[in-house]
Specification:
The structure is a single chain. This protein is 20% helix and 43% strand. By secondary structure, the chain is an alpha+beta fold. The chain has one domain (8-82). Strand 4 and strand 5 (73-82) form a beta hairpin. This is Cystatin-A-like protein. It comes from Lates japonicus. InterPro entries: Cystatin_dom (IPR000010), Cystatin_sf (IPR046350), Prot_inh_stefin (IPR001713).
């Protein structure tokens, strides 16, 4: 398995992944988000893809999301209370 990519600007594919994970993120954080915009991300490919995504909500959160080879999205974790300049790091 290779390491994570350099940080990239989020595209429509990453936004779609965020939208598919949103309900689980809201359940995990016990919050409801009006704004939920993917801004930047890193990815790692292997037997599927792992994404670490910086998301603009009422502040900032980071998501760890796994997309398996059949396209299923699995939320691995959420880091809350992040700031815009915080680096995207695997967790």
């Amino acid at each position: 398995m290779s390491g994570f990519s350099p940080e990239k600007l989020a595209d429509e594919n990453v936004q779609r992944i965020c939208e598919l994970a949103k309900a689980e993120v809201e359940k995990t954080t016990s919050k409801s988000y009006e704004e939920f915009t993917a801004v930047k991300y890193k990815e790692q490919s292997g037997a599927g893809q792992t994404f670490i995504i910086k998301v603009r909500v009422d502040n900032w959160i980071h998501l760890s999301v796994y997309k398996n080879s059949s396209g299923k999205i699995i939320l691995n974790g959420v880091q809350q209370d992040k700031n815009k300049p915080d680096l995207i790091e695997p967790f």
